[in-house]
User: Which sequence fits this backbone?
């Protein structure tokens, strides 16, 4: 089944161009140095006469609602039940959001030069990366392309979303919109306008199905039938609603053909879908062809909560991780049942290192859910997918939410110097280089970590940010699979 393995001999005796295509096919790096994830729906809410920042979303993805189980399998900080009283009028305008992106992008470009010139070699030494391979890594990151992920509760409900996509594309960014698809389902005029100048990628989520058969069932429905079934889902079942909305949005592609953007499906893995995860993934890719799949374990460390993954769930995940690692080396797509999964060998090796290190202990599930896995603020080179979102800073004079260099999931890395559109380029650069680490030193509860694939980013960011307790096992795995 395994057709050709990139063994040690192969990788070191190869021409540079061959090495390049292997690193690319294993998904170790992208042709970019950094990315920007911006929460476009951060806003303010009043509580006891104080102004707090919050997230605006029209969904409720939580495990419980008023103490009663919702059927959902994770908690999201943007769920509307967690953000009651939010004032929509305090969402930043598209203009401010584009300004924030530009500020961070300029700093990323500066940092790129500095990193390649002054830091890449020491990274290579610390993590035993051979010189030939490091040269190839350099070719990947020595690139000014920047991906901008429009993110946050539900970016499609921002009133300037179409303008932002157009503006950012015209400035040369690669634009991904992570959305639920609800607006596309409910407002045909929005779809028409979106298709006049679509983003490069639409990322959707499919975290909740009532068994594998349901994937087939929804995929075989007409658009109208999907809408009719969706309308019967109780509003507290945010994850279930999203699965219908996502399939609707994917099926809409039939009406637009090649004009439609690329599609990516995020899939949070939890006890329910891990039981038969292999069939779940293969059925998804069969029912929804030409959709890239991005599975990752449910996260809870960022909110200091224990993992919802059980020991059994971890066992299923362990087998799945092994299979995905192997699948990176299958050359023929038709022989690879996981060919739809975005390749990211380093990410799966990192997960495997945690599963090896903490095997048969309760700690395994917490680490896999982020606590003690990887940290964006651990060393230079890590956390190059920079986030702009809300902070926990209470400021009763502020008029607009968001715009802070921080993290959507955990605010302990928030830049206390204010909103990014008011900072200088040097301020932004120093945040990424040093301030983020200083902020965390001051934090009473530093973020324990996460395993969100987009944030873990490439092999360099992954290795630098990997928890030190996992490094030995990780390096052994890397040697076994990649040869160094
Ligand atoms: C925060 S949402 C924002 C975009 C959009 N509202 C959506 O749900 O796709 C982005 C992704 O985060 C995932 N997510 C939310 N909370 C999570 C958690 N606790 N663990 C893992 N994934 C989570 C969602 O499934 C979704 O794929
Ligand atoms: S739709 Fe997305 S942002 Fe909104 S609550 Fe669900 S996961 Fe969070
Ligand atoms: S490790 Fe960094 S990116 Fe991940 S949740 Fe924590 S603060 Fe956010």
Assistant:
């Amino acid at each position: 089944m395994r057709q050709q393995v990139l063994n040690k001999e192969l990788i070191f005796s190869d021409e540079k161009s061959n090495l390049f295509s292997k690193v690319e096919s294993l998904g170790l790096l992208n042709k970019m140095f950094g990315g920007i994830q911006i929460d476009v729906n951060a806003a303010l809410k009043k509580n006891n006469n104080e102004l707090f920042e919050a997230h605006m979303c029209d969904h409720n993805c939580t495990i419980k609602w008023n103490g009663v189980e919702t059927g959902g399998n994770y908690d999201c900080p943007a769920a509307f039940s967690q953000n009651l009283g939010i004032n929509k009028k305090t969402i930043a305008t598209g203009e401010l959001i584009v300004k924030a992106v530009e500020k961070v992008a300029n700093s990323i470009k500066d940092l790129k030069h500095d990193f390649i010139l002054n830091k890449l070699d020491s990274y290579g030494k610390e993590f035993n990366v051979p010189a030939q391979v490091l040269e190839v890594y350099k070719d990947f990151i020595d690139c000014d392309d920047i991906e901008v992920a429009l993110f946050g509760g539900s970016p499609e409900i921002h009133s300037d979303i179409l303008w932002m996509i157009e503006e950012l594309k015209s400035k040369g960014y690669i634009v991904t919109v992570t959305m639920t698809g609800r607006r596309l389902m409910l407002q045909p005029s929005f779809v028409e306008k979106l298709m006049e100048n679509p983003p490069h990628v639409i990322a959707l989520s499919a975290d909740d199905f009532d068994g594998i058969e349901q994937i087939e069932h929804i995929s075989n429905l007409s658009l109208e039938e999907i809408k009719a079934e969706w309308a019967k889902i109780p509003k507290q079942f945010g994850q279930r609603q999203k699965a219908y909305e996502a399939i609707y949005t994917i099926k809409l592609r039939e009406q637009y053909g090649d004009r439609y953007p690329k599609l990516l499906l995020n899939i949070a893995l939890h006890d329910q879908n891990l039981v038969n995860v292999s069939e779940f993934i293969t059925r998804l890719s069969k029912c929804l062809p030409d959709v890239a799949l991005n599975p990752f374990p449910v996260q809870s460390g960022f909110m200091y909560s224990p993992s919802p993954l059980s020991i059994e769930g971890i066992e299923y995940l362990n087998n799945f991780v092994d299979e995905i690692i192997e699948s990176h080396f299958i050359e023929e797509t038709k022989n690879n049942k996981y060919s739809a999964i975005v390749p990211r060998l380093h990410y799966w090796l990192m997960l495997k290192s945690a599963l090896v290190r903490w095997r048969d202990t309760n700690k395994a599930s917490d680490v896999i859910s982020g606590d003690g896995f990887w940290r964006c603020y651990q060393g230079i080179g890590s956390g190059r997918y920079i986030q702009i979102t809300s902070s926990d800073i209470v400021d009763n004079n502020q008029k607009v939410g968001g715009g802070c260099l921080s993290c959507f999931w955990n605010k302990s890395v928030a830049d206390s110097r204010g909103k990014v559109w008011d900072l200088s380029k040097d301020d932004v650069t120093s945040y990424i280089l040093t301030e983020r680490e200083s902020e965390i030193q001051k934090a009473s509860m530093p973020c324990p970590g996460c395993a969100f694939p987009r944030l873990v980013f490439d092999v360099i960011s992954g290795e630098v940010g990997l928890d030190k307790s996992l490094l030995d096992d990780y390096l052994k795995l890397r040697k076994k699979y990649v040869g160094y």
Notes: Residues 8-482 form one domain. The mean pLDDT is 94. Residues 57, 61, 74-76, 78, 151, 153-154, 178-180, 205, 207, 242, 266, 268, 298-299 surround S-adenosylmethionine (ligand 1) (CB under 6 Å). The chain has 20 helices and 13 strands.
